[in-house]
Amino acid sequence: MLDNQERIQIIQRALRSFTNTERVNHEIQWGELTEFLLNNQSGTFISNAGSTHSAVSTSNSTPGTKKTQRIYDSTGMQAVTDLAASFQGTITNPATVWSKIRFTDDELNDNREAVKFLEDSNRIMHNKFNESNFDTEIGKGYQSFTCLGNLALLQEEISDDENGIFGGFRFQALHLGQIAWEENKNQLVDTVHRKFEMTAKQAVEKWGIKNLDEKILEALEKKPDTKFPFIHSIFPRKKENVKLNSLGLAPGEDRPFASIYIDATSNNIVKESGYYEFPIHVARWSLMPGEAYGRGPGHLAYPDVRTLNKLKQRHLEAIALQVRPSLLANQRDILGPLNLTPGAINIVKDHQGLREFPTQARTDIFQVTSEELKMSIKSIFFLDKLLLPPRDQTGEMTAYEVSQRTAQMQRVLGPVMSRLNSELLSPLIIRSFKMLLRSGELGPIPQILKEKGIDIEIVFVNSLARAQQIEDIQNIQQLAQQMALMAQIDPSVIDNFDSDAAFKHIAKTIGVPEEVIRDSSEVTQIRQARQQQAKQNQTIQQMNMMADSASKAGLTGLPGGQQ
Q: Is residue 335 within 8 Å of 348, Cβ to Cβ?
């Protein structure tokens, strides 16, 4: 358990994380981007850099508050939604298996029993994803990722504390206004402080009454829906404080990553536990040197979005002036206030003194400028590359042209995908696999894996990953074609080509299940049997030829044709 000094240090560390200059500056930008690009965000950003309680202030806006007071054009919001939907449907499509796990040891990849265990584990893991709320939460995360440049996904286990039964995965896309993080020496996030609120009723249901402040317990009796602030800090423990048994298991207080819930009202520790792996997957679109928080397409598109929004506002004002222009009237020609409602009667001295005020508004200019801004916004969000153009622009396209264009479009996201794979998807798969392994959901482990251990690597087989890797396959195919032409001149050139390696590389790239590929020992046996059969066939053929020759010699060898 943490002592009082350590508890104070954690609280101070969380305060510093939320109030450091970099995060405050980013939070101001997030608030602006959210208003014009991510209007469906479930809260607002409130920067309280000067407050001593900023780490426990909430970022949630009042439920039901109108959020479109200054919005006149939805192009930016639609671009964020389209790009996020493209990520979700392409990278983590729930209708397909979008990742595979392989052994780093090629010998294990040739073992039929070990490969079957890994294939079954991969299938079980993706089924667990589909049974959980992963698809819903990752969709929210992608919107934050494409707009704000950052994504934070909390992954926890649903378990029966009494029976210790694994109940599946639980995910939560965290609002950026609620969390602050720190990086390790490898520029990977390994510490997260989260601020949130819970009602008195929720707090008692989650932790009981043992460590809660008296104010919370009093509210439970009188106003159970009263909200109170809490801090959740997750950070790596010191090596000397990690105590795993021979099976790699330990109580929560001895695991590699600490999980500390603090009642911000009294600064008391509500619960101390831990995780085997870091449970919050933080991905950044791109990083500027020296920064820990990412920047995304929303930062680049923001000036165009604001310009288009203001232009649309002025355009609507110009239309209003044309539909209902201002009026000019001579002084004292109108007796009483002017009523412009249909059927109204206005008493005037001289109706010739009442006339429209001519406006010089150029609404045609808006059409040209707005189209340019819309195309710029869509280009920044890659929509001109990810979505096929209308048929009236390209004409009829063959299936090959469509596939090549799609692959070319998707490859432009290569740098972004590299960071997304390393910071989000790979840690997600590894943690999920280990959670299932510890819970016994993957079934009995083969003996060879118990002896050699399980060291895995992640292979992504979604359509975007395949599009990025398809160039290798095309290069191999071109090499095979060129080799076939050169072999007509010199057949020995084929000796330079390792067809087995090429076949396995293509199978791995396109995501063929390992269980349908024979291991090296089986292939060797089949080839040896084929060679032996070929030798037997050759021997039989030679014997038949010799017998046939001897027969002919016996029939014609004597004088006069006598036998």
A: yes
217: tokens are 């317990």
pLDDT digits (tens, 9 = 90+) for 272-287: 999 999 999 999 999 9
Please name which of 232, 237, 271, 240 lies closest in space to residue 256, comparing C-alpha atoms.
Answer: 237
Grouping H, G, I as helix, E, B as strand and the rest as coil, residue 202 is helix
**Helices 21-37, 4-19: crossing angle, 10 deg rounding:** 50
CB 285 within 8 A of CB 295: yes
Q: How many Å apart are CA 460 and CA 466, to the nearest integer?
A: 8
User: Within 10 Å of residue 365's Cβ, how many Cβ atoms?
Assistant: 12
Tokens 């932790």 belong to 207
Q: CA-to-CA distance for 527 and 545, rounded, in angstroms?
A: 27
Phi and psi for 156 in degrees, rounded to 5? -130, 175
The Cα angle at residue 250 between residues 245 and 255, in degrees rounded to 5: 115
Distance CA 324, CA 339 (A): 13
**CA gap 386, 37 in Å, rounded:** 19
Alpha-carbon span 29 to 535, nearest angstrom: 76
CA distances 354 to 94, 312, 365, Å, are 67, 31, 30
Phi, psi of 545 (to 5 degrees): -70, -40
**Mind listing the pLDDT tens digit for each residue in 200-235?**
999 999 888 888 888 999 999 989 999 999 999 999
